[in-house]
């Protein structure tokens, strides 16, 4: 199932915006640096089998 490129870009921007917001709100309790596990989870969510990708 193929998605239009514009939809993919929109979802990517939405993901980035949510990630920035989440990091800002989380900064008060913990450090704002991303660990390898966080990046792996993000990659699996955004580029996993659901999107037709192979993941990270």
Automatic annotation (TrEMBL):
Question: Which ranges of the sequence are coiled-coil?
Answer: none
Q: Which GO terms describe its biological process?
A: regulation of female receptivity, post-mating
Keywords of this protein's UniProt record, alphabetized? Behavior, Disulfide bond, Secreted, Signal
**Signal peptide segment:** 1-19
Q: Which terms does the record give in the GO molecular function aspect?
A: hormone activity
| Alphabetized InterPro entries for the sequence | Sex_peptide
A cellular component term from Gene Ontology for this protein is: extracellular region
Presence of the UniProt keyword Signal in the record: yes
**PROSITE patterns named in the record:** PROKAR_LIPOPROTEIN
Compartment(s) of residence:
Secreted
- Per its record, how is this protein called by name? Sex-peptide
Species name for this entry? Drosophila subobscura (Fruit fly)
The organism's lineage?
Answer: Eukaryota, Metazoa, Ecdysozoa, Arthropoda, Hexapoda
